[in-house]
Design a protein that fits this description.
2 copies of one chain form a homodimer. By secondary structure, chain A is an alpha+beta fold. The first copy, chain A, folds into 2 domains: 4-76, Glutaredoxin, CATH 3.40.30; 88-220, Glutathione S-transferase Yfyf (Class Pi), Chain A, domain 2, CATH 1.20.1050. Helices cover 59% and strands 8% of the residues of chain A. Chain A has helices at 13-24, 41-46, 66-76, 88-114, 117-137, 151-156, 159-170, 181-191, 194-197, 203-225; strands at 4-8, 30-33, 55-58, 61-64. Chains A, B: Residues 2-81 form the GST N-terminal domain.
Chain lengths: 226, 226
């Protein structure tokens, strides 16, 4: 009898990767929602190094870092379709772009989102340049790995929802049709996948949450520059 | 006929991981030394995203990011002993700590090394705290993975040489015997492995290079605070 628990926040895109992965593999699991303003003793016990979620607890053993969790799920429940391709070169390519997303795309977009005024204008350029590189990766492909859905779609999946949230609450429209036609096409294709469609956090709740977060960043920035 | 080329600098610890990995697997390869002050057109062509080395070129296809390259080598030349363990949970653990080294240990140690004065004093604490976490990982083990040499030893291998270089050129002694007995024991064990021992860059050249680099950082910092 497998015991699988996912510790997550309700709103983080990093948790969604793991949710999609578990559901795609058909793994039964229990969700524990964490409040990062008041972290549980379990969270601190299971991820003492980073004190972050998502954490996957499998038969009592914690696995941390969402990309590490994705590969774990893919290797541990390996009887259904694999997320990563079989070919070592294709696997290396997938790992390269996953790291690029986490180290560069997501942080640069987030920086553009939470800043304002001149600082925001300066942050938008680098964010768009990272997204240009993502756009190129989709040339001639339905999904990031080619014809079928896989690892990198889970990794880049946040783009399909959160850029819209950032637009609604932060006033930055990054995905213009003429610059990012392939990301926008992929976004529709990705969003149509049942397991994706069915597991987004509630839209209105996300809007309210990110509005609050942006206000918080802005008031902190204003205080620091006074 | 396999064509394998490694683009690297002569002094970077990230390149050494790949050197050790290729030699341990018995892969014949050609080395191309890059000068980062004057990057070759090949470097820019093969790693346009990061414009960094190491790059492994295998039959004309580039693979970038040293951890990605390590996993590629392990999967592509898989008839000799594997670097990563077979068990998915042990693999996840190895990937977690590799990321921890690259995201936290190495940057915090480097920050302590290149800073000076009060700034250096403030940077040493966080670096020691990261190393404390590494120290704990070695409890009851000969190597990071347990009884035998593996993936994480390649990843943490830089510690065995570069902390000494930092001490000689930056005046910071991080690995005190009473605080880090296990890292120091591992360091001796690791340094005895022939492929490791035989492939360190020349000690005097490293000292000269890092002395120059530290001077450069300090003069830049001094100019910025004038």
């Amino acid at each position: 009898m497998e015991e699988v628990k996912l510790f997550r926040t309700w709103s983080s895109p990093f948790a969604l990767r793991v949710v999609w992965a578990l559901k795609l593999k058909g793994v039964e699991y229990e969700t524990v929602y964490e409040d990062l303003a008041n972290k549980s003793s379990s969270l601190l016990e299971y991820n003492p190094v980073h004190k972050k979620v998502p954490i996957l607890l499998h038969n009592g053993t914690p696995i941390c870092e969402s990309l590490v969790i994705l590969e774990y799920i893919d290797e541990r429940w390996n009887t259904t379709a694999r997320f990563l391709p079989e070919d070592p070169l294709a696997r290396a390519t997938a790992r390269f772009w996953a790291k690029f997303n986490d180290d560069q795309v997501a942080p640069s977009v987030f920086r553009a989102y939470v800043s304002q005024g001149v600082e925001q204008e300066e942050a938008i350029g680098p964010a768009l340049e990272k997204l240009d590189i993502v756009e190129k990766q989709l040339t001639g492909k339905k999904f990031f790995g080619g014809e079928s859905f896989g690892f990198l779609d889970l990794v880049f999946g946040w783009i399909a929802k959160y850029l819209g949230i950032f637009e609604e609450t932060g006033g930055i429209k990054l995905l213009e049709q003429d610059r990012f036609p392939q990301i926008l096409e992929w976004k529709d294709r990705f969003s149509d996948i049942p397991v994706v469609k069915e597991n987004w956090p509630d839209h209105e709740k996300l809007i309210a949450k990110f509005r609050l977060m942006r206000d918080y960043f802005n008031s902190t920035a204003a205080r620091c520059s006074e």
